[in-house]
Amino acid sequence: MDRQPCVYILASKKNGTLYIGVTSNLLKRVWEHKNQFVDGFSKKYEVHKLVWFEMHETMESAIAREKLLKEWNRKWKLELINKANPCWLDLYEDFV
């Protein structure tokens, strides 16, 4: 999973505040969010739970997908998470 482009969604809780990001190192980036090394939205609203992610072949495709997801309405984002992770488990725990 290291050094592979990825789009991810963090949540504060089930159906809570969402954050969409892109990274080339998912585990490192989520760890940074969880330990509040990332200033801004996720730190301010305590959005640290990895609830969805999608790997990509290139950073360009990951960035394009991130931009698309950010344009989606909230209902579509919740449906995307619920389809892949209906219990809203913190997927980061599966990797550490």
Walk me through this protein's architecture.
With 96 residues, the chain is of the alpha+beta class. The protein has a single domain, classed as GIY-YIG endonuclease (3-Layer(aba) Sandwich), CATH 3.40.1440. The protein has 4 helices and 3 strands, in the order E-E-H-H-E-H-H. Strand 1 (6-11) and strand 2 form a beta hairpin. The longest helix is centred in the C-terminal third of the chain and has 13 residues, at 59-71. The mean pLDDT is 95.
For this entry, give a set of tags.
96 residues; alpha+beta; GIY-YIG endonuclease; three-stranded antiparallel sheet; 3 strands; globular
The gist of it:
The chain has 96 residues and is of the alpha+beta class. It is 39% helix and 20% strand. It has a 3-stranded antiparallel β-sheet, sandwiched between helices.
Itemize the secondary structure elements and their pairings.
Elements: E1 6-11, E2 18-23, H1 26-34, H2 41-44, E3 49-55, H3 59-71, H4 74-84
Antiparallel strand pairs: 1-2, 1-3
Query: Which strands sit side by side, in order, in the main sheet?
Result: 2-1-3
Silhouette: globular
Mean pLDDT: 95
Second rung of CATH, namely the architecture: 3-Layer(aba) Sandwich
Low-confidence parts lasting 5 or more residues at pLDDT below 50?
none
CATH class: Alpha Beta
- Structural class by SSE content: alpha+beta
* Element pattern in H and E: EEHHEHH
**Structural domain tally:** 1
What separation lies between the terminal Cα atoms? 12 Å
User: With helices defined by DSSP (H or I, 4 residues minimum), what is the helix count?
Assistant: 4
| Major sheet size, sense and barrel closure | 3 strands, antiparallel
Give the % helix: 25-40%
CATH superfamily: GIY-YIG endonuclease
Report the radius of gyration as a whole number of Å: 12 Å
| CATH T-level topology | GIY-YIG endonuclease
- Beta-strand proportion: 15-25%
Secondary structure: number of strands: 3
